[in-house]
Write a structure and sequence with these properties.
The protein is α/β, with parallel strands linked by helices. 39% of the residues lie in helices and 16% in strands. It is built from 14 helices and 14 strands. The strands form three sheets. A seven-stranded mixed beta sheet has the order 7-12-13-11-10-9-8, with helices on both faces. A five-stranded parallel beta sheet has the order 2-3-4-1-5, sandwiched between helices. The longest helix has 22 residues, at 183-204. The chain is globular and about 65 Å long. The two termini are 28 Å apart.
C-alpha cells in the first residue's frame, strides 16, 4: 500500500467524530473516501466485498449488531448496500451514548432512504468528500490561505503555472489514482470514471436501466453549459437538438437524479444578499460537475483541445476553482454560492461562513484585462450591498489560473492564482 496522502477532510472527520456518535462520508467513487476512512478508523468492514456482500446483507437484516462490532471508530464501507444499517447505527449510538463510534462511507444515496429510515439527526453527522483540491495534490503551494483572507491579513505568493499546466490539471482532475502518475495514466482515470458512470453506476443507483447514449448526450450537454445559469429545459432542448427523437422532462429528471445520487453533478445555488436597490436576483443554479475532468471527458477534449478553445477552457477552469473552493470552505464550515442579477452583474463564487462572514470571488483564467473586469464587477456588487442589514464582504478576490503573483491591489481587491490557494 502506498503512502497515505493527507486530506483536508481528515481534520473535518476527526472534529465531527468528537461531537457525534457517527459520521457519514459521502461523495463520488474514486475520490478517496475509503482510503481516508481506513486511515482514521480502528476497525473496518467492507460491504462491497464480492465474496461476502450477500452474507453481509442478510446479516444486516437478521442481526445487524454483529456488523457493528469492532474497535472504535468502526468503519462500514459502502454501507448503503444494506440500508438497514442506518437505523442499526443510529440505535447503537443511542445505546452506547458516546461520541466517535462509527464512520460510514458511501458513493451513492441508497434506494430505500425512505420514511422507515430515521434521519439520524443528532446522532449521525454528514460530510461530503470530493476529488482532491490542487493544494491536496501538491499542485498549489498554499502560500495564500482562504482563512487568512477572511482575517484581512497581508498576503504574498508566487506561482509558475502556465496555460499548458492548467489545461492538464483540468483534464487530469483530482482523482487520487491520477496524482503522481504519468500523464497518460493520469488522464486515463477521468476517462475510466466517465465510462463507469455511463455504463454501470447510473443503473445501479436506482435499479433502472438507462440508455447509455442518452446519458452521454446529457453529460455532453451539461458540459457545454458548464459554469452557466441555464435552465434544465434548455439542457433538454440542447439534447433534443443533437439527434435524439424524444427526451421528456420526466426522463431528464430521472437521469439527473441518478447523477446527483452518485455525486457526479454538484450545482451552485444562488446567493441572496440584502441590497440597497430592489434588484431582481436570478435564482437558477449554476451548473457544475464535482470535478472539472468530467466536463472535459464529456466533451471529448484533452489539454491541447482546451488551449485551442480558450472560451471553453475558461468555463471548465471555473469548475476546477469551484471544486477547490468547496474543499477549502468545508474546513472553514462554509458554503459556496453564486450571484447574478437582472442587470448582468455577477459574482462567480460567494464563500459564506456559518458566522455570517462572506467573501466575493470572480474567477478568471488570466490576463490583465480579465482581472480588471473581475475587480470592477466585485467592487460594483460590494457597493450594492446594504451594510446596515448585513456585514460588508470580508474580502474581494479575483481567482486566476495564470498570474505570477498573489497580491492586494490599491482598491483592496485581492488577486490570487489558484496555484497559491489553500484552506
Amino acid at each position: 500500500m502506498g503512502k497515505y496522502m493527507t486530506r483536508i477532510a481528515d481534520k473535518i472527520i476527526i472534529d465531527r467524530l468528537e461531537a457525534k456518535g457517527a459520521i457519514l462520508i459521502e461523495g463520488p467513487k474514486w475520490c478517496g473516501k475509503t482510503t481516508t476512512g481506513k486511515h482514521l478508523a480502528k476497525s473496518v468492514i467492507e460491504m462491497d466485498r464480492p465474496d461476502l456482500t450477500k452474507q453481509y446483507q442478510q446479516m444486516a437484516e437478521l442481526n445487524p449488531s454483529a456488523l457493528l462490532a469492532g474497535e472504535v471508530p468502526h468503519m462500514i464501507d459502502e454501507w448503503q448496500i444494506a440500508p438497514n444499517l442506518w437505523n442499526a447505527v443510529r440505535y447503537e449510538v443511542d445505546q452506547r451514548d458516546e461520541f466517535g463510534q462509527f464512520i460510514l462511507t458511501g458513493s451513492s444515496v441508497p434506494i430505500t432512504l425512505d420514511s422507515s429510515m430515521h434521519t439520524g439527526t443528532g446522532r449521525i453527522g454528514r460530510m461530503k468528500m470530493r476529488p482532491m483540491s490542487l493544494y491536496e495534490s501538491k499542485d498549489s503551494n498554499g502560500e495564500v490561505s482562504l482563512s487568512a483572507l477572511f482575517k484581512g491579513e497581508i498576503i504574498n505568493g508566487t506561482d509558475t503555472h502556465n496555460l499548458e499546466s492548467i489545461a492538464y490539471l483540468i483534464c487530469r482532475g483530482g482523482w487520487p489514482k491520477a496524482i503522481d502518475a504519468s500523464e497518460k495514466v493520469a488522464l486515463r482515470q477521468a476517462i475510466d470514471y466517465y465510462d463507469a458512470i455511463v455504463y454501470n453506476d447510473v443503473d445501479r443507483v436506482d435499479g433502472i436501466k438507462k440508455d447509455s447514449e442518452r446519458m452521454k448526450k446529457l453529460l455532453r450537454s451539461y458540459a457545454r453549459n458548464i459554469s452557466q445559469q441555464v435552465s434544465l429545459e434548455l439542457i433538454r432542448e440542447d439534447i433534443l437538438a443533437n439527434d435524439i427523437e424524444s427526451f421528456g422532462q420526466n426522463t431528464l429528471y430521472s437521469y439527473l437524479d441518478s447523477l446527483k445520487k452518485i455525486f457526479v453533478i454538484e450545482d451552485s445555488p444562488a446567493w441572496n444578499p440584502n441590497l440597497r436597490s430592489k434588484t431582481a436576483i436570478r435564482t437558477t443554479d449554476t451548473r457544475y460537475f464535482v470535478d472539472p475532468s468530467i466536463a472535459s471527458v464529456s466533451l471529448g477534449l484533452g489539454p491541447q483541445d482546451l488551449i485551442n478553445d480558450l472560451n471553453t477552457m475558461g468555463l471548465i477552469f471555473e469548475n476546477l476553482c469551484i471544486r477547490d473552493l468547496r474543499v477549502y470552505a468545508d474546513s472553514l464550515d462554509g458554503q459556496i454560492y453564486h450571484y447574478r442579477d437582472k442587470t448582468g452583474l455577477e459574482c462567480d463564487a460567494v464563500v459564506h461562513l456559518r458566522n455570517g462572514e462572506y467573501g466575493l470571488i470572480e474567477i478568471k483564467l488570466g490576463g490583465d484585462s480579465l482581472i480588471e473586469e473581475g475587480a470592477r464587477s466585485l467592487l460594483a456588487l460590494s457597493n450594492k450591498i446594504d451594510t446596515k442589514k448585513m456585514k460588508k464582504p470580508a474580502f474581494l478576490m479575483v481567482l486566476c489560473g495564470i498570474a505570477p503573483f498573489a497580491y492586494r491591489r490599491k482598491d483592496s481587491v485581492y488577486v490570487v492564482p489558484i496555484g497559491c490557494l489553500k484552506d
